Amino acid sequence: MDTAVIPALFVIILGLIVGAAFLRGWVRRSASSAGQRAGDRYTAARTEEILADLGATLVVRDFPAAAAEIVRTVIADRGTSFSLLPDDALGIRFVEPDDTVARLVPGPEGTLLRVETFREYLGFPQTAPLWRELRALVAAEAATRQIEVADGPVSVFERGPVLDDRNARWFRQA
């Protein structure tokens, strides 16, 4: 009886050792793929929030020249984050001055301040808080001049080609 138990124990122990080697790799792959899926879900949800922020627009109920003066005043006060670009556009800086490009566009209800294009870094857009801040500053400056502002239509964006390993530039859909 002892002779049958020893080989059986040997086979069981050997099976556990070999099985553990395969099990360790399977557990790593499973955990890695679960982590990747969770990261992708987080990035997708975060990107949707950011796109909604960047798609928000502001209508300054005045002529384009008055709206441009309000924007110039705001930029002069906060020159590090915001800048005027050569083509009368407004740049919002995360890394480069033109990471996000916004414009003043004449419309039927006044002048519309909207984002035209933006670049993503680290896998998703980074300038949404600055865009929110800019809209708030423009609204506050307009209020001091007794110019009415309102929320405008929401812009929708599409992702352009990849610029590097995972980042791209997004463009407003026409």
Features of the shown structure:
174 residues, alpha+beta, TATA-Binding Protein, 9-stranded antiparallel beta sheet, 3 helices, 9 strands, 49% helix, 26% strand, rod-shaped
List the total number of helices: 3
Q: Average pLDDT across residues?
A: 87
Query: CATH top level of the domain at 53-172?
Result: Alpha Beta
Share of residues in strands: 25-35%
Tell the overall outline.
rod-shaped
Structure description:
It contains 3 helices and 9 strands. The chain has 174 residues and is α+β, with helices and mostly antiparallel strands. The chain has a domain at 53-172: 2-Layer Sandwich (TATA-Binding Protein), CATH 3.30.310. The longest helix is centred in the first third of the chain and has 54 residues, at 2-55. The mean pLDDT is 87.
List the helices and strands and how they pair.
Layout: H1 2-55, E1 58-60, H2 64-77, E2 82-84, E3 90-92, E4 100-107, E5 110-121, E6 124-125, H3 128-144, E7 149-151, E8 157-162, E9 168-172
Antiparallel strand pairs: 1-5, 1-7, 2-3, 3-4, 4-5, 5-6, 5-9, 8-9
The gist of it:
The protein is an alpha+beta fold and 174 residues long. The chain has helices at 2-55, 64-77, 128-144, and strands at residues 58-60, 82-84, 90-92, 100-107, 110-121, 124-125, 149-151, 157-162, 168-172.
